[in-house]
């Protein structure tokens, strides 16, 4: 099904600075592509069903699990953004889509380099899951330490990219993406169900249970989808290439604090009534969090991802923390998100 002639439409009109090919152009990829198009770049989207791509994108049918059938990169390709989802949380599926899919793309980038002398910039959208086993504050200098089979495949895929000199390699490791249509924490709060099992005494032992299996003291890291897209687009266009950036906002916090803040905003009872001492404003605690992301005097634990390098690179985020990002989502009915 996927061959150089499999495009369902003409590739987007070329631009002087070269075409950007977005491989696995779903929600995030389409946002990245729109930003690049508004910056004057020609953008092609590759996916199995390209009919869903936005107007103005070159539409190319491509299945990463059928590497030998993938089209060649267009001659004017300057950059590739690799951002598919595996579709299933199995190591085998991750290998097929990420590692083997990227390998097939690298072969095409290498051939393009041979034909045109062009060195393609390859931006891999990875995940902070490659740091899964870490505790404490991590940044771009932290070693990879995946603790799941899928995280291991992502780490292997990053390594594959880094070891290929025929492309300019760039890795963007995203924390959990939230934003329109991505309402997991919000829906947890709206759905309730934390209940009596969520009652905490403030001790580490008592904090590890919840009726949803949620540990409210586990530090959560996230990035708004608009900032994730802006980060990837900037990694395509920047003249100075960052080799790796962690994509996360400015406020890693225990997930229970996000639940409690959302409940306050929605006028619902706090799911974790003992997380914040009585009489203390949640915003005050969150401010303290900026200075001390691990809340050393509390049972907070897990990894806090330091996104300072990305924030400098972008000159600031549109949504520096979850309060800014969730606020518009609280104003709209779910169906409009
Ligand atoms: N969600 C998070 O919290 C999170 C966290 C860290 C990193 N990320 C990364 O963010 C990236 C994008 O996420 P997203 O939310 O934009 O996902 P998405 O909306 O599901 O888009 C991914 C696209 O990949 C395409 N795809 C799937 N299998 C493919 C295959 N075999 N060959 C070619 N294309 C394929 C799908 O289109 P077709 O079905 O038409 O092929 C889909 O539209 C991913 O790289 C993901 O690992 C996400």
From TrEMBL:
Please name the InterPro entries in this protein's record.
Epimerase_deHydtase, NAD(P)-bd_dom_sf, NAD(P)-dependent_oxidoreduct
- Gene3D superfamilies the UniProt entry points to: NAD(P)-binding Rossmann-like Domain (3.40.50.720)
Which Pfam families is this protein grouped with? Epimerase (PF01370)
Looking at the record, the residues that make up the NAD-dependent epimerase/dehydratase domain are 21-238
Q: Which domain of life is it from?
A: Bacteria
The name under which this protein is listed is: NAD-dependent epimerase/dehydratase family protein
């Amino acid at each position: 099904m996927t061959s150089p002639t499999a495009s369902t439409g003409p590739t987007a009109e070329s631009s002087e600075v070269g075409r950007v090919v977005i491989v696995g152009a779903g929600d995030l990829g389409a946002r990245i592509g729109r930003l690049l198009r508004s910056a004057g770049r020609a953008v092609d989207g590759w996916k199995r069903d390209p009919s869903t791509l936005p107007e103005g994108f070159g539409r190319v049918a491509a299945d990463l699990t059928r590497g030998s059938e993938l089209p060649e990169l267009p001659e004017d390709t300057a950059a590739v953004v690799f951002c598919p989802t595996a579709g299933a949380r199995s190591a085998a599926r991750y290998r097929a889509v990420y590692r083997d899919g990227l390998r097939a793309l690298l072969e095409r980038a290498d051939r393009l380099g041979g034909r045109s002398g062009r060195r393609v910039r390859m931006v891999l959208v990875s995940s902070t899951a490659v740091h899964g086993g870490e505790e404490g504050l991590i940044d771009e200098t932290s070693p990879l330490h995946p603790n799941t089979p899928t995280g291991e495949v992502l780490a292997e895929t990053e390594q594959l990219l880094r070891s290929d000199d025929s492309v300019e390699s760039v890795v963007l490791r995203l924390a959990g993406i939230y934003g329109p249509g991505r309402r997991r924490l919000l829906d947890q709060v709206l759905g309730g169900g934390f209940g009596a099992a969520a009652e905490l005494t403030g001790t580490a032992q008592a904090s590890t249970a919840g009726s949803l299996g949620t540990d409210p003291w586990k530090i959560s890291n996230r990035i708004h989808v608009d900032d994730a897209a802006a980060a990837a687009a900037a990694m395509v266009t920047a003249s100075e290439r960052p080799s790796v950036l962690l994509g996360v906002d400015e406020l890693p916090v225990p997930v229970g604090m996000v639940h409690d803040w959302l409940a306050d905003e929605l006028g619902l009872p706090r799911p974790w009534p003992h997380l914040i001492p009585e009489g203390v404003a949640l915003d005050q605690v969150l401010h303290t969090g900026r200075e001390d992301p691990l809340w050393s005097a509390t049972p907070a634990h897990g990894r806090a991802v330091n996104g300072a390098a990305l924030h400098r690179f972008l000159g600031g985020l549109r949504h520096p923390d979850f309060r800014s990002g969730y606020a518009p989502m609280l104003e709209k009915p779910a169906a409009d998100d």
